[in-house]
Amino acid sequence: MELSILLDPFILAEVSLQGLIRGSMYGLMACGLSLIFGLMGVKNFSHGEFFMLGAYAMFFVAVIMDMPFILGIGAAAAVLFVFGVLVERTLIRTLRRRAGREWLLDAFVLTIGLMVVLQNLALLTFGSTRRGVPTLIPGGVEIGPIWLTNDRLLILVAAILIVSMLGVFIRYTRMGKAMLATGQHPEAAQTLGIDINRVYTYTFGLGAALAGIAGALLISIFPAYPTVGFHPVIKSIAAVILGGLGNVPGAIAAGVLLGLIEAYTTFFLASGWQHVITAVLVVLVLIVRPYGLFSSAKGERP
Amino acid sequence: MRQESGGTRRPSFLRALTVWRAAKIAVLVALLILVPYVSDSAFITTVFISAVMFGLFAAIYDLMIGYAGLINFGYAGFIAAGAYTSALAWLHFGVSPWLGLLLAGFVCAAIGFFTGLVSLRLRGLYLALMTFFIGEAIRFTISNTPDYTRGMLGLNVAPFPSIFGIDFSRGNYLNYYYLLLVIGAVIMTFMTALVNSKYGLAFQALREDPLATESLGISTTRYKLLNFTIASFLTGIVAGFYAHYLGILSPTPQEFGVPRTVEILTITYVGGRGTLWGSLFSGFLLIGFQEYFRALGAWRLVLFGCLLIFVMLYARRGLAGLKKYVW
Questions:
Q1: pLDDT higher than threshold 50 for residue A138
Q2: Longest dimension (CA), chain B
Q3: Would you place residue A7 in the very low, low, confident or very high pLDDT band (cuts 50, 70, 90)?
Q4: Strands (E), chain B
Q5: What is the pLDDT of residue B8?
Q6: Which of B58, B164, B255, B258 is the most exposed, fewest CB within 10 Å of its CB?
Q7: pLDDT at B238
Q8: How many angstroms separate the CA atoms of A244 and A250, rounded?
Q9: Of B265, B297, B302, the CB nearest to A121
Q10: Which domains does chain A have, with CATH numbers?
């Protein structure tokens, strides 16, 4: 490849934009994961399967029932919220009640089991065919020399919108404030009359719903199939680590960063290397800054 | 609770070897040796090989998670490193697979030492994530360098050459099985002795409370590194066997990625953490089940996952919890 092509500003802008769009979706997923982790300490490895279920919900509503795709996004959010609540009530709570030493590690292993179950149940129910939607909104817009399809624009706008809504929810609603308090100090929150079990349940449901929304939005890029969640969940776990575990804005920023890295490595190197680069980056951050890139926290190490 | 069954209160595990217990062990060992020979069926023998092989991987995994509380979530990547080391050493440098087993052990030990070194500051989930990304980095490096490893195309691996007049050509499953039994016996004896030594106590102290352990003047860093390095060395040896027995390697997720790690982790947890031998039993149970019910397809993985969830929720001690009823 000629160097002049690599340095062409339009191509760089194009690549950056692709990265930004992918990154915004990793950020969306990572923020659900980070929320669950920050509040409950549970590392949810079945997050990718929530993403997968969201994609199937979207396919069901938008293609099989032939309804507008906005309803599909709503359906994905609702279904996954209920599912997340059920998972928390039945599985995670049982473990938390026992609350022995290292119950978090047990919860992590439990979500691994859940991942295997959901993936294979999806395979049995839906088969391994990829069920996608070619486009949600046909057409596109031209920004200068760059052509941007409406779908990608939708992803970007929706990601920004949802993240801001989440910010407003956490800062200004009763439940959101209760979540913040529980995250800071569960015992103190309980003393102040906050029903922390309820907060945990809602948090898990909300995190699952965010993953479902990401899955629904991305159906034109990632068609629904049983193991579709693996790639996004890896990226969002990486984003959560890079952003600092439990740091929601940090996770979003790191998600965008990972999207950019992915776009650049895919463009300049063979696409397979992006995974190695992501992994090496995460390992380096865990060594040098275990609290994440965007955190100023000091003191006790994880 | 676990310490009581782990035998740490006894000064030596040999002292607990009553006649009755010895007889029961003798029967099990006899079954292990004789069943494939008597059955004279290639299918039974291959199932036994898989069961023992994965039982061993799970037992080594148990040395990390069950004794020292170190979770290695990139374990399949370590297996890949061992398997490819032996296979590539033979392919590119003509190193005999027998030497390759040791070489694989040393390369894995080096990776394990490195992993331990970079994750000294991490515990629990953070360690799981760190090892996960190291494992994935190993796997993707293999799949991205097809010039050396043939990547996703799959690498053909030579069988073991004959040694002491014993033939190890492909398809001679019985000899491979006995070779594995010898390797397994050495590894299990070594690990049992290790966990019953002062090192085993230090590992458990590390698991229970690293801070208190440190304050007693035991270097948690040193034992953590030791545990990881030894476990990785043993993994490398079994992985070398895996490569030459299987004959073909490819860096797919099913073979060297998360699904494989989950499989081994499930065997360990179902067998009971901190028991070593429980992993071998559950290896036979789960792998035997898996091979026998191939027709079930994806359902058997659903069952695997449900089993793992069940063990986490209600049977934390796994099969070892049943020991007092049947043993």
A1: yes
A2: 57
A3: low
A4: 155-156, 248-249
A5: 47
A6: B164
A7: 92
A8: 6
A9: B302
A10: 19-288 (1.10.3470)
Choose, out of A33, A90, A101, A109, the residue to mutate when testing the contact with B (most B CBs < 10 Å). Answer: A109
Contact criterion met (CB below 8 Å) for A219 and A76: no
d(CA A210, CA A51): 8
Instruction: Look at residue B249 and give its three-state secondary structure.
Output: strand
How buried is A7 (Cβ within 10 angstroms: 0-12 exposed, 13-18 middle, 19+ buried)?
A: exposed
Domains and CATH numbers, chain B: 2-6+42-326 (1.10.3470)
Tell me if B240 sits within 8 A of B104, measured CB to CB: yes
Q: What are phi and psi of A142, to 5 degrees?
A: -110, 120
The residue-averaged pLDDT of A26-32 equals 85
Collect all residues of chain B within an 8 Å Cβ-Cβ radius of residue A95. Answer: 312-313
Distances (CA, A) of B125 to B112, B121, B132, B302: 18, 12, 10, 24
Chain A touched by B71 (CB under 8 Å): yes
Residue A4 in this model has a pLDDT that exceeds 70: no
Do residues A30 and A211 lie in contact, with contact meaning Cβ atoms separated by under 8 Å? no
Q: How far is B127 from chain A (nearest CA, A)?
A: 9
Residue A9 is encoded by which pair of tokens?
Answer: 């500003």
Chain A hits for B129, Cβ within 8 Å: 43, 237, 241, 282, 286
Low-confidence ranges of chain B (pLDDT < 50): 1-8, 10-11
Cα(A206)–Cα(A170) distance, rounded to whole angstroms? Answer: 11
Q: B249 has which bridge partners?
A: B155
- Res B16: pLDDT: 60
Residue B114 near chain A (CB below 8 Å): no
Chosen for mutation from A37, A120, A237 (greatest number of chain B CBs closer than 10 Å) is A120
Task: Kindly report each contact of residues A142-150 with a partner whose C-beta sits within 8 Å and lies 24 or more positions away, as own/partner.
Answer: A144/A13, A145/A10, A145/A13, A146/A10, A146/A13, A146/A14, A146/A17, A148/A17
- Token pair, residue B48, equals 């036994």
Tokens of A84: 């997340």
Q: Is A112 in contact with B265 (Cβ distance < 8 A)?
A: yes
| Residue A293, CA distances (Å) to A38, A90, A297 in order | 16, 35, 10
pTM over 0.95: no
Nearest chain B residue (CA) to A281: B133
**pLDDT at res. A209:** 92
Q: How confident is the model at residue A298 (pLDDT cuts 50, 70, 90)?
A: very low
Best B1, B70, B120, B125 member to test A by mutation, with max A CBs in 10 Å, is B125
Estimate to the nearest angstrom the gap between the alpha carbon of A108 and the chain centroid: 17
- In contact, A23 and A255? CB cutoff 8 Å: yes
d(CA B36, CA B65): 31
